[in-house]
Amino acid sequence: MRIDAEFIQSHNGKTLSDHRESFAYLSGKLDRKGVDVSGFIQKISKFQIAIPSWALGTGGTRFGRFPGGGEPRSLEEKVDDVGLLHALNRASGAISLHIPWDIPSDVDAIKAHAASHGLVFDAVNSNTFQDQPAQAHSYKFGSLCHTSHAVRQQAIDHNLEVIRHGEALGSKSLTVWLADGSSFPGQMNFRKALQRTLDSLKEIYAGMPEDWKLFVEYKPYEPYFYSTVIQDWGTSHLLASELGDRAFTLVDLGHHLPNTNIEQIVATLMMRGKLGGFHFNDSKFGDDDLTVGALKPYQLFLIFNELVEGMEDPRSTNPSPAWMIDASHNLKDPLEDLLQSVEAIQLAYAQALLIDRPRLEEARESNDPAKAQELLQDAHRTDVRPLIAEARLRAGAAIQPIEAFRALEVRKRLIEERGAKSISTGL
Amino acid sequence: MRIDAEFIQSHNGKTLSDHRESFAYLSGKLDRKGVDVSGFIQKISKFQIAIPSWALGTGGTRFGRFPGGGEPRSLEEKVDDVGLLHALNRASGAISLHIPWDIPSDVDAIKAHAASHGLVFDAVNSNTFQDQPAQAHSYKFGSLCHTSHAVRQQAIDHNLEVIRHGEALGSKSLTVWLADGSSFPGQMNFRKALQRTLDSLKEIYAGMPEDWKLFVEYKPYEPYFYSTVIQDWGTSHLLASELGDRAFTLVDLGHHLPNTNIEQIVATLMMRGKLGGFHFNDSKFGDDDLTVGALKPYQLFLIFNELVEGMEDPRSTNPSPAWMIDASHNLKDPLEDLLQSVEAIQLAYAQALLIDRPRLEEARESNDPAKAQELLQDAHRTDVRPLIAEARLRAGAAIQPIEAFRALEVRKRLIEERGAKSISTGL
Amino acid sequence: MRIDAEFIQSHNGKTLSDHRESFAYLSGKLDRKGVDVSGFIQKISKFQIAIPSWALGTGGTRFGRFPGGGEPRSLEEKVDDVGLLHALNRASGAISLHIPWDIPSDVDAIKAHAASHGLVFDAVNSNTFQDQPAQAHSYKFGSLCHTSHAVRQQAIDHNLEVIRHGEALGSKSLTVWLADGSSFPGQMNFRKALQRTLDSLKEIYAGMPEDWKLFVEYKPYEPYFYSTVIQDWGTSHLLASELGDRAFTLVDLGHHLPNTNIEQIVATLMMRGKLGGFHFNDSKFGDDDLTVGALKPYQLFLIFNELVEGMEDPRSTNPSPAWMIDASHNLKDPLEDLLQSVEAIQLAYAQALLIDRPRLEEARESNDPAKAQELLQDAHRTDVRPLIAEARLRAGAAIQPIEAFRALEVRKRLIEERGAKSISTGL
Amino acid sequence: MRIDAEFIQSHNGKTLSDHRESFAYLSGKLDRKGVDVSGFIQKISKFQIAIPSWALGTGGTRFGRFPGGGEPRSLEEKVDDVGLLHALNRASGAISLHIPWDIPSDVDAIKAHAASHGLVFDAVNSNTFQDQPAQAHSYKFGSLCHTSHAVRQQAIDHNLEVIRHGEALGSKSLTVWLADGSSFPGQMNFRKALQRTLDSLKEIYAGMPEDWKLFVEYKPYEPYFYSTVIQDWGTSHLLASELGDRAFTLVDLGHHLPNTNIEQIVATLMMRGKLGGFHFNDSKFGDDDLTVGALKPYQLFLIFNELVEGMEDPRSTNPSPAWMIDASHNLKDPLEDLLQSVEAIQLAYAQALLIDRPRLEEARESNDPAKAQELLQDAHRTDVRPLIAEARLRAGAAIQPIEAFRALEVRKRLIEERGAKSISTGL
Fold first, then answer.
1. CB within 8 Å of chain B, chain C residues 59-88
2. So what's the ipTM on this one?
3. How many beta-carbon contacts under 8 Å exist across A and B?
4. In 10 A of CB D36, how many CB atoms?
5. What's the pTM value of the predicted model, to 2 decimals?
6. CB B190, CB B227: distance < 8 Å
7. What are the sequence ranges of the domains in chain D?
8. What is the pLDDT of residues B296-309, one digit of tens each?
9. Angle value at C-alpha C366, between C365 and C371, nearest 5 degrees
10. Which of 1.10.3720.10, 3.30.428.10, 3.40.190.10, 3.20.20.150 is the CATH number of B19-418?
């Protein structure tokens, strides 16, 4: 199914006058503070967040999976789902594929299909954490770090193949999340494993087109429970530095030990020109992959404070980071969840843009933490929802995407189309 | 020094028209949603937060202390400081004393002094985590749990003496935070220590006036680093249950292991009628005692969601909890810090009051987590600052307390009065 | 396959003289310290650890599963596998079943089969965290706590059915691990959920035979990632207390927040007479379900220190706890892993038995933490492996179970019997 | 006081035959396994651990301090205390000074004094986390990272002065632990702070003699509670890499977030040739600074597994790390605590030396985690105390240092000499 512009316009009609009042009030206030509201809204509109193909179906845990219905049965239907989101919020204009789950049978057709939704293909993702049916060697004990040359070569070849698929689709980057690790003390020779991983990554890096970037994720645990080869940003940064100028660290919010100051990691990576991208989600305990902003919206805002500071610094050498959601939807409707996530990201971004940076720097220089806190809180406490809604309205999207999604009974219609028992490919 | 009403009125004048516009906008919106704005503001006004006497000076860590200036040199000056806060926000109408640091020399005089600021005396706090100069026995190895009967008796007697001081001042509750614990495996017989603690608490409980309450805090570590006798709410609840109807658990936000779901603990205690009180602060790593709302404002809101739900439940048997800030001000001006803390508490309370509870229950009953999240976020994302400001305005307090505090150069004047090297008694 | 006594005897022959020397040395030393070595070995021999039926196959994570081979295809083969373990170590004389995975088709036959291996049936486990094919209602949003009466009734009925199966097999207890929880703030009304859970448990409790016990597990998170209904021992203890004398808390080592002092929880529960049983495993990050003793053997020893103290206290009202391993074997051969786990438990138990308790109490009474530490470390640093080996030798088991397992090529033979692709029922 | 050799010899006499039996048994077993026991004991003997001057008195927490007695009142007496330890264990042959607490008035005299005890001066430590009485600028808001040039210069100058003191004493390295950080979001510009820190460190590095090393510590929090400038090994490594070949990372065991895999960090740093040194202690919750090995002896062993692997790797470019205890003694006698710590380090080192590395590598290469675990556990479960005792015996030290310390009533004599109220300088 597709959502047509008329429906959106008519749905917007119901809340338009309310919205206009709220927007007038807020833009008036910001105007008087010297904020260029139009420029502000343009920044919001330009900020596009990629949707991962694997987040369109119901996820699960090791204990079980409770499927919803109407899940996309093919790559085409995954593109359709992202198209639905983008029609509703005009902020999800990219899809990130996972190989081998999403190998297109007809590249041109799928590109045209995506284009018809206004979508492009973001970073491609390789998978060396599962064994595929026809696979010669198992990744049970690792892939790029494996003790056996044959396994490493298979994993390298897979990544090179992913790059070829991505090239055909117009992607410009490869994200490597390496599950490799160990579950028992003694199991792995840490130094050899790291060296082998670096050597493997070098071959992948060498196989990338000149205009591509390589994103190296880190994660402290899971699916292995004692060590992971790339346990933290320091290890990822070390690898990316050895690999070269087009290798970067990718930060996934859920991939940190309890209490980690993630915003400082972001700042450090941007200072080094090595922040490649972001996987947004939220969590309370581990890599819980929950809706962005559902648990710690202030932390998200603090991270955007660093991102905005880095992006707006004219001396920064850091390329514009890649933005992607990486979540798992065990309980909520995946599309509702993604709409909530995108909105939470936009709110945090908008609030971070509102921070009075000259006065913040002044407070910092004069060591006035109370004032610095006031300035951050002033931005965070501002109800910026009318700005996001206005950005959507101007882009032809819904003032209230989730309400529109529910009013249109999208899920019901998807179930009618695809069945109640469809399972998203790859899950 | 005292802040006179005229100053506040004149300071308010500068932002009055701005405030009126914001308040009109917000109250209009809430009106249309069916919120009784006046009743709402009355609830905010009635919500008073006690200030602990030990939070008025500069705190420190084991590594050092960097004093500010103008710290209160006596109990009278501590009362004055809380009076300053209360004059600015009309939300800090109580002071919580710590014995032996705050033993009044003339009870009637100090009561009259407090009354002149509009202050009452909240829970009194005992101290068995430090040795006082003239003390017969050391608390190095515990107090109420100590292996020696003489030490336990000394600690019991101290608590009874604290009750007597509190009675004279009009307090109605005793807060017992027990540092008792151990730093090494094997050091302590857990069961004997818990039994001795219970026995000691029984004697204290028996010594309380009939209309008093006993609050039992819990904390997982610090100042001992392996175990504490009352390590969690479960242990505190067990003790409070054994003690009787007037014994309750007190929750200090910083006294939890990483990732604890504190709001659920609050809900469980209220369900049992056993939540006695709250120590507000914020933290990232441990018992950091930072400004309330400075790190995790959404968590604070979620906690108030439970508190409001419990307080507004007509079937609840839980008495109205005691509200207190418990923070340590190592870097900020203590009074600015406390103004920020009180405001953060008020904002969280106001947002929690705004939650559309009937629809929330409906979402819960129909297992719609996306909708439940929308409802919570709608309340939390609302900029409720105009409501708090209006509550203050109506009570004769400052629209913007910190700005008023800075405009009046309160700290400068306190330093002139008390000197740059004054150290708050007890620190 | 079965392991016959002759093989074990002949395998023992290879290391017998080495063992005799080690045992002679150690028993000589202990003798001189006044330890009754024979009594000691009898205690070790009597300590039997139940094996859960679900730990006999390869486990997995949400990211995938890398199966081994020769996994048991039926309840009979699961009993056979535990029989193999018990033949090798004579310390795994019980099996704990999981319903509906392990419903016996012929109860008498399976009882006879188990008896032929020297095995009894330990606690039975219910499953309300997954949906079974023919199930009327889904547990997606909980079971005993569910908002819908029909779902709760279904879950209650399932537990009652589990009891009936257990009764037929000779079990004497039901373990309830409740996955119930929520993944998003606001999703669940904490108080109502806890009340409904208590009400449901009351019906199950009422349906137990008079000589049965109910074990209530707790867990802070997973498979839900914001809250669980029974988040900690305090909640479990509260439920068990309300239920009655035959309801107890069950401690699973992996079900705690970071840094929790588990040994103190054990001590408190035993003091209250409410420790029902134990699920042994080890972990670094969460509920990692790794081999017992693989990560934190000293913590395990400290827990046994409390267990032994509680078990040997003549005034204790706590019944003898149920001992069970609860682990997941993603990488190792499940049977090797279980042999390692049992040995680690035995070592910790033996070391805890060696603690010089009178002197420890003396050190505690005189507040001498250095001495208390010396006494614990003296026991833990003692190489007690010869004692465990001797206990095995006397019981007709292998001096070195894993070596025997490997020498006999058990896994190879199981693969021959059952195939390389067999998957343990339930996984 | 000094401990004379005769006392030790006579004290050893009491347990000599017991020791000889144990040693004979163990060395016989190791012999048969092909271990070169004499070479082994030489390695143990050569392993010397520096004692920090600040660990000789009673430490405290922010809540209080419970002093013992007989604390060293001067640098001379601190040297005496380390001399006492070294006499007892012949493994504490170095002292690490802290400036300004330990500025020697007569360098030659103190060097001679140390030499008379067989002691050398290890790394010197600077202090920019406290304000000294005569100091021009405050470190309240940082030192090397401070926004003010004058404060940074003062901190740089202090470090250069520390180097000069160290040079005079024969030290060869400077340890910089930088408390610098922030307690509130927004307070600090992370990137500027890190840049300023790097610039300041460059000046200190430039001021070091050619044969000196600079050790850069990291720590995630405390005394600041939101961020620290050098929050993790990645940041320290980044700074050390920028500084040059003689700058290294120093690992303090207590300076990590919960669940960090420290042993892997050690392995990574050694692989990069960047592990400069070690601060040993133990902890359960944070930087608890408890006795080494008191909480997590197996983790300590796993760390030594990596250290030994790195040290014995002929291709390693990592210089021999500096070994130091960094602990705080709040409850135990500081000297007893240090004796326990040194012994725990020696035991972990000895066990790590016992690991059968060829077979471990074989298990790793063949992905056999059960076997790898067996090999590590075999080493860790071996009671190596007789080897350490034998090393001490051969070096003229006590077979049982703590027993000797108690038999000699050292503390009692120190109190007689120095008084019950002496406070160690600097505390």
1. none
2. 0.97
3. 60
4. 11
5. 0.98
6. yes
7. 19-418
8. 999 999 999 999 99
9. 105
10. 3.20.20.150
